[in-house]
Description:
Blueprint: H1 2-37, E1 43-51, H2 56-62, E2 79-87, E3 93-102, E4 109-110, E5 112-118, E6 121-123, E7 125-126, H3 134-137, E8 152-156, E9 161-168, E10 181-189, E11 194-201
Antiparallel strand pairs: 1-2, 2-9, 3-4, 3-8, 3-10, 5-6, 5-9, 7-8, 10-11
Amino acid sequence: xxxxxxxxxxxxxxxxxxxxxxxxxxxxxxxxxxxxxxxxxxxxxxxxxxxxxxxxxxxxxxxxxxxxxxxxxxxxxxxxxxxxxxxxxxxxxxxxxxxxxxxxxxxxxxxxxxxxxxxxxxxxxxxxxxxxxxxxxxxxxxxxxxxxxxxxxxxxxxxxxxxxxxxxxxxxxxxxxxxxxxxxxxxxxxxxxxxxxxxxxx
Length: 202
């Protein structure tokens, strides 16, 4: 009787282990699929303008910031102004983060955000260590980890919305053209974990 019980116990343990392994494998596959295809159901529209001190105020208002609310870095030769519109964002997403990069170097190099405006008003920028897995999953975001990591402009994770953001080049960069810029968004859930990224311009 003891032998049968031992066998039943071993069988139960083996079955439980199999279920755990299968569950972990399924979770891993599902997460890989999310990295690759998350955001496919979201519609994005992006517009980018390269500005100088002379036309920054006009362009940033045209792209969505209220008059007098946007301030550029005075020493910057040029400022990249971007407007991102989206719809169809899942409720599980807490926020969208907007980043701009210079693709004249490979992988593209992040630009420095100077400010932003979204449906909630003025928005800042920041960077979390939790965002660095982006570099592992997207070749074109490899520079967002390490010394080139800068910051991203925050937008609330509403189902649809608009954010206007403006960026400047890092100190060692020369003037860029509109076709030199990559604009991307990545999503963050309620736990602060990055779910997926999408290249939406350039």
